[in-house]
Write a structure and sequence with these properties.
The complex is a heterodimer of chains A (248) and B (119). Chain A has 248 residues and is mainly alpha-helical. Chain A is built from eight helices and two strands, in the order ββαααααααα. The longest helix of chain A is centred in the C-terminal third of the chain and has 37 residues. The chains are: A mainly alpha (248), B mainly alpha (119).
Chain lengths: 248, 119
């Protein structure tokens, strides 16, 4: 009953070996496939009728589109809209995985730092590649603030470069840490219920307290799931803005 | 019975006035309650978002230090200049973390512009 057990990766199906490494479908991969299928299937199903007056499902999809589009426009401008597919994919993927993780017995994919680091690196590399493609060497002006005396400029530039490279770290750790901490807390409080149940009638009566807390934390986790998906997406928008307009 | 009619009419108008004032009072009370609820909700939201903001800022700071220290350590390892890489890396990382925190708190203008105070 240890609270970490829920994060175990299990092999579901072994596909084969490549260069000595085993390639297999794990429970994590399975949940990611399920999330992608859920998003794509849900989107197609909800928009299949293309009603002028949207029904419930179509309404949800339209609200989601507008939410991400407004977020991107407000932080990266109209030029940022070409990154809409990327931001929307990241947002919906993280949101659905977080929400899947909240269902009891389901696996929380975003509680693994491998996943969040990979997602953050996708954004980071996109920013670097597009920044150099769009602005050429002017992109490097991002690291050289104007109005700084020449004798401390090398030091400042080193600090700015470090600050830039620490972005994917905080970007990924934030999502992973929130989901991990939330699930461990939930499991610890839930295990108090069964522990107290071992103390007879008095224990049963006292176990109402952790039960109530578990319900409350589950509600909080729902909020955190959405909030972290939102934070991940809005940070993506802010970083993309640097690639589109460096040195504004 | 015109007299009785008049009495009921006066009674009716009195009751109507009473009802009107009671509805008005209830409306005021409901507005007040709604206002209080809104304020409470705002307060809770502020508290929650302050917590989230605190975590975010500490995360930015730690990320800077970890990255600076890591880069310095790697430099030590590959260039064999131990312990200077780690020392300088940690110090630079500390500065970068502080910079991250100042940027995300909105004290400093975003990366790429001049280092003057925002606004």
């Amino acid at each position: 009953m240890d609270p970490i057990h829920q994060f175990n990766i299990q092999k579901v199906y072994v596909l084969g070996h490549i260069a000595g490494y085993e390639i297999s479908i794990t429970n994590s991969a399975l949940y990611m496939f399920a999330a992608v299928a859920f998003i794509i299937g849900g989107m197609l199903l909800a928009t299949s009728r293309r009603a002028l007056v949207p029904g419930r499902a179509q309404g949800v999809v339209e609200v989601g589109y507008n939410f991400v589009a407004d977020m991107l426009r407000s932080s990266a401008g109209e030029a940022g809209m070409k990154f809409f597919p990327l931001v929307f994919t990241l947002f919906s993927f993280v949101l659905v995985l977080n929400m899947f993780g909240n269902i009891p017995g389901f696996f929380a994919v975003t509680s693994h730092i491998v996943i969040t680091v990979f997602l953050a690196l996708v954004v980071f590399i996109t920013v670097i590649v597009y920044g150099f493609y769009k602005n050429g060497l002017k992109f490097l002006k991002l690291f050289v603030p104007s109005g700084v005396p020449i004798y401390i400029l090398p030091l400042i530039t080193a600090i700015e470069v470090l600050s830039f490279f620490s972005r994917p770290v905080s970007h990924s750790v934030r999502l992973f840490a929130n989901v991990l901490a939330g699930h461990i807390t939930l499991k610890v409080f839930a295990s108090f219920i069964t522990m107290l149940g071992g103390f007879g009638l008095l224990g049963w009566a006292a176990s109402i307290l952790p039960l109530g807390l578990t319900v409350a934390i589950t509600a909080l986790e729902l909020l955190v799931s959405f909030l972290q998906a939102y934070v991940f997406a809005i940070l993506t928008c802010i970083y993309l803005n640097d690639a589109i307009h460096p040195g504004h | 019975m015109p007299n009785e009619d008049k009495a009921t009419e006066a009674d009716m108008s009195r009751r109507l006035k009473e009802l009107g004032s009671r509805i008005g009072e209830a409306g005021v009370r409901r507005d007040q309650q709604a206002q209080e609820l809104r304020e409470q909700e705002m307060e809770t939201q502020n508290r929650a978002s302050n917590l989230a903001r605190g975590f975010q800022l500490s995360g930015e700071f730690v990320a800077g230090i970890l990255l600076g220290g890591g880069a310095g350590w790697a430099l030590d390892y590959f260039a064999g200049i131990s312990p200077w890489g780690l020392i300088v890396g940690l110090l630079l990382g500390f500065a970068a973390g502080t910079l991250n925190v100042m940027r995300s708190a909105g004290v400093l203008a975003p990366q790429g512009s001049s280092w003057d105070k925002k606004d």
